[in-house]
Amino acid sequence: MEVSNSCSSFSSSSVDSTKPSPSESSVNLSLSLTFPSTSPQREAKQDWPPIKSRLRDTLKGRRLIRRGNDTSLFVKVYMEGVPIGRKLDLCAFSGYESLLENLSHMFDTSIICGNRDRKHHVLTYEDKDGDWMMVGDIPWDMFLETVRRLKITRPERY
Amino acid sequence: MNYFPDEVIEHVFDFVTSHKDRNAISLVCKSWYKIERYSRQKVFIGNCYAINPERLLRRFPCLKSLTLKGKPHFADFNLVPHEWGGFVLPWIEALARSRVGLEELRLKRMVVTDESLELLSRSFVNFKSLVLVSCEGFTTDGLASIAANCRHLRDLDLQENEIDDHRGQWLSCFPDTCTTLVTLNFACLEGETNLVALERLVARSPNLKSLKLNRAVPLDALARLMVCAPQIVDLGVGSYENDPDSESYMKLKAAIKKCTSLRSLSGFLEAAPHCLSAFHPICHNLTSLNLSYAAEIHGSHLIKLIQHCKKLQRLWILDSIGDKGLEVVASTCKDLQELRVFPSDLLGGGNTAVTEEGLVAISAGCPKLHSILYFCQQMTNAALVTVAKNCPNFIRFRLCILEPNKPDHVTSQPLDEGFGAIVKACKSLRRLSLSGLLTDQVFLYIGMYANQLEMLSIAFAGDTDKGMLYVLNGCKKMKKLEIRDSPFGDTALLADVSKYETMRSLWMSSCEVTLSGCKRLAQKAPWLNVEIINENDNNRMEENGHEGRQKVDKLYLYRTVVGTRMDAPPFVWIL
């Protein structure tokens, strides 16, 4: 099962309390079946456009590695001002807290996300559109879908 | 010819190599059938369920090379569940039992297990060549058996397979005595690679012509490998990230200059675009360039690279090249025969990377173009008419407009006339894929003009059963018809059952065919396997009182001489 299926909250095979009510979901499903575009159901289904899975994974910009039943998602992490980056497997973390904890340890400094802070480094990420965003605003599994790389910004910038 | 002794006839047959021709020869008379049987070394089986290994071996006991295809084409796009079938193990078991001298096995869309690879590696002393395309079900342990046991291995070619990488030492399983490798392609492996074992293997393989690395092979290792193998013809670069000032990069540049036989380049799975210039010195020799996985190469670096590739015959690229980039291709690559442009942005965020303009430019600039696969955001009838005029020699024409049902973006008309122009002009067209807004009219044109058409892919097209009927009645050479999300139903399906005897297979998903229609078809044509794939509603079809009228989600039918297959999973219902 590919990561995107398990992460998507609209996957038809998951039992999820955030799923829309039965009448809504049947409308959504029938719409997406007649007009697949970028509706979540169609994305979860991954059968359009007709390209092979390997290319699909590459284009999502993710370094997705499958080993047995595990998946890894390696992204690059740079600290602003430091030319050599690190690589991190985001699937090894359960959420933002453990990510931050690990990063702080890796770069030997305190890193936060969310609010601006003149004293701490702030964690940002490049999403699949190429935009740089503040880490922490979206649910973790959505973050895994969209993140391409991480950057730890210097405090003065904010 | 019958006045000659058999050995002479057989010698003549040796010059006939194409499967079609050999099949034709065998139909001439009994004596030729017999001679052909015993001299046939290569057999191609387009559908592994059309025949079984026992009958294959009875007819061709001197088999040396076998090509097998399993799942239907739409399996590439996640439309066929993984457990559907296409298992190679029974074939390998039967071949092993018969002690046939198998030397070459080529599989496409089949389920291969470590057990089958192990058996394969132990059963055939002269086994030389293994080519696996879009297969799944095995791990690097299976590769280790092949490496360890096939003493005369020449080709190990793994193209786009799903392989469980156990991060094992499969590369070090090649014995030191193995020096016969000609092809080594493991680009699809996702795990780490034993670089030392790889370098030693390449160094002791003087015949190595094709080497395709996975992303775990960094640039400095590439440099060392190329120094060992300057005779390389086909190179798949793994990870291509480095500092352009580094020593490794300098070494790489020097090594590349010596690779004067290099004709084909691919990979760049992770790439630092500014390092591409290392390849400029050999670009003028390249006939094939595949950058479809090189998402990080675009813009000026890509253009500069292409401008050096004047002899290119085959180009696979992402649409980030843009119309302007395609114009550069059109003015540079005059020998271009095959072009594939893949989508780089799956969100469809209105990014008009390539449009009809790029396609027209290519058709105008590249007179030898005969195969195209083009993903784009928009198309017009006028453009297609121009393309048809510029390139009447298309053999394969596959157009995929990313948004289903999209009309001509200038006139808002369906694209019937555009595709009509293509099929009318391209008399040798064998393969066609349609997209955009299309009515029954386009199928009328196809049925009328596409006389040589063997494979047709239809998605979100047509209005009524008439559309499908035009195709079934008109295209005499149709072999594979695959249809999804189109309003064709039982009337079209059942109109001419004997047609399916001349075709390899028919796929219909999310169409209007019903269960009772499929049942009637199965009754009329016992020599067909009519499979209903119903993943979501296991057994709901039987329980429902109105089962007959219920629409079938996925239908796959194919001719076969060996009846119903026994290995179908529970969600596949064979009528």
Automatic annotation (TrEMBL), chain A:
GO terms for biological process: auxin-activated signaling pathway; gravitropism; regulation of DNA-templated transcription; root development. It is found in: Nucleus. Residues 72-157 form the PB1 domain. The keyword Transcription applies. Belongs to the Aux/IAA family. It comes from the Eukaryota. Coiled coil: none annotated. GO terms for cellular component: nucleus. It comes from Arabidopsis suecica. Pfam families: AUX_IAA. Aux/IAA proteins are short-lived transcriptional factors that function as repressors of early auxin response genes at low auxin concentrations. Repression is thought to result from the interaction with auxin response factors (ARFs), proteins that bind to the auxin-responsive promoter element (AuxRE). Formation of heterodimers with ARF proteins may alter their ability to modulate early auxin response genes expression. Homodimers and heterodimers. Residues 1-49 are annotated as: Disordered. This is Auxin-responsive protein. Its main location: nucleus. Keywords: Auxin signaling pathway, Nucleus, Repressor, Transcription, Transcription regulation. The keyword Flavoprotein does not apply. Residues 1-40 have a biased composition (Low complexity).
From TrEMBL, chain B:
It is found in: Nucleus. GO terms for molecular function: auxin binding. It comes from Arabidopsis suecica (Swedish thale-cress). InterPro entries: COI1_F-box, F-box_dom, Leu-rich_rpt, Leu-rich_rpt_Cys-con_subtyp, Transp_inhibit. GO terms for cellular component: nucleus; SCF ubiquitin ligase complex. The lineage of its organism: Eukaryota, Viridiplantae, Streptophyta, Embryophyta, Tracheophyta. Coiled coil: none annotated. GO terms for biological process: auxin-activated signaling pathway; pollen maturation; SCF-dependent proteasomal ubiquitin-dependent protein catabolic process. Signal peptide: none annotated. This is Leucine-rich repeat cysteine-containing subtype. Pathway: Protein modification; protein ubiquitination. Keywords: Auxin signaling pathway, Developmental protein, Nucleus, Ubl conjugation pathway. It holds the Pfam family LRR_6. Residues 4-45 form the F-box domain.
